[in-house]
Structure prediction request, 618 residues.
Amino acid sequence: MAEQIEIKELTDVVVRFSGDSGDGMQLAGNIFSTVSATVGNSISTFPDYPADIRAPQGSLTGVSGFQVHIGAETVYTPGDKCDVLVAMNAAALKTQYRYAKPGAAIIIDTDSFGAADLKKAEFATADYLGEMGIDPDRVIACPITQMVKDCLADTGMDVKSIMKCRNMFALGLVCWLFDRDLNVAFNFLREKFAKKPAVAEANIRVVQAGYDYGHNTHSSVANVYRVETKHKVPGRYMDITGNKATAYGFIAAAEKAGLQLYLGSYPITPATDVLHELSKHKSLGVKTVQCEDEISGCASAVGASFAGALAVTSTSGPGICLKSEAMNLAVIMELPLVVLDVQRGGPATGLPTKSEQTDLLQVLFGRNGESPMPVMAATSPTDCFDAAYMAAKTALEHMTPVVLLTDAFVANGSGALKLPNLEDYPDIRPPYVPEELRGTWTPYMRNSEGVRYWAVPGREGFAHILGGLEKDAQTGAISTNPENHHLMTTLRQQKIDRIPVPDLDVLGDADDADLLIVGFGGTFGHLHAAMDELRTQGHRVALAHFKYINPLPANTADVLRKYPRVVVAEQNMGQLAAWLRMKVDGFVPLQYNEVKGQPFEVASLTAHFLQVLNEGKN
Prediction:
């Protein structure tokens, strides 16, 4: 009789896949998160790419990681530390073990721990577990490479192709460990390799082999665990990255507005996936142009906007520097444009694959002249859909360029998105010039909200010229009149100030908190988790997280002045804190700042906030 396996139920678990950048850790992690999202688990993921284009195989700098946190209840972060670490080679174990919890299960491919592998990973002895202080009883040591070769020996595949399937064995073993349904993984692979069915079936065979290995060996290290969703909300779900959700949000906005979507872009990490995704949707009227540089990417989008499209340009921080003149052109021409800035580590080339929030002041002020521009920030991978939609709505309805900030953590991370119903989203109504103004209309004539009317080329009687020189408010002709320039500067600023944005929500102990945590953008999950932990300990803590940064919500000053202690936490040296001090008289917050290229750690946040609370009692 087969041994009966006990299945233990958990509320959440964190798994980290790691190996060479060519080992397919991102694919294995993506499939595992998709399988988990399909059964209704809440998920949060964090791909951790090396900055090297292709580091030497087995080297410490070439390790690629993918961490996924799945939970029965809502999970807000990918987790500080993992419960299970998959290390496909010695370098992965050496560099990634620091992300493992004490007592975490560790899965290794023993075939990748030979003498040469240990030397590349800078181990001093053959006893690599002892050298790192790892209890061997916590290690699932599998000869993964050899088992994959044996599994695919009769397929006729060459050795290089067989080696690319090693990640699927690890995936199968992890799926066994957490009682996952393999059919979802199989469907994923058949769809991904639809044009290469033999490759799909080879990978499927290896996934099954990894699952069977776990089932048949019943390792003493691992039990079988299940994370069962407690509160299931009916609907169709998908595991989606922030970049893909952003692309879908732009498509939805264009459809709602009845416009064609145009993206003018130049490839740059970590924003390029938006260009890749939108280029797949020509059937939906999407036009994408990969331009020769950042300047032309933005300038072409300005032209598309003048022509009547929903125009978008995408980049990261270095590209914002280059696009600034064309962004300013859209400001003075008062044309709708969405500028997507997927923030990464800087300055200069900096840390291309790492995440920061260091572009905030650049997008607020990094242009010549008085150049007001709305700024929004997405708070999670799934929120990128709504953020992109609302950024497009703001641009189209208020005739202005809008900056949408995400970051590498949000853009490359993923979550379980309940597929939205477009009928539930607000209408998008651009201020087209009304027909009754035919014959009297001029290019800078405005509606009751101070927004310039939009005359799309092709409408008889509304031909006009726009440009980068200041124009007369009444006639639209070039003007250097001092009073007119002051008037136009004021009108452009007032238009932005009047944009309605939702009030700032306060979560947690909103009425009587001893500490208010303040943040913006992609740090929401970590700050929320830190607040939850402190409240569990009995402290009164609240969180105010900014999604709309310019203009600020109308209740911003009231919220910030309400609490005895306020900490602004951000992944820069204090840019949001500086903006809030500038906009709210007398506001002098405490600050928590990290610029590490890595997400916050909830444990570090909690410890710091606890210290602030204790200091407030003295």
Observations:
- The chain has a mean pLDDT of 93.
- Residues 197-217 form the longest helix (21 residues).
- The CA atoms of residues 133 and 267 lie 43 Å apart.
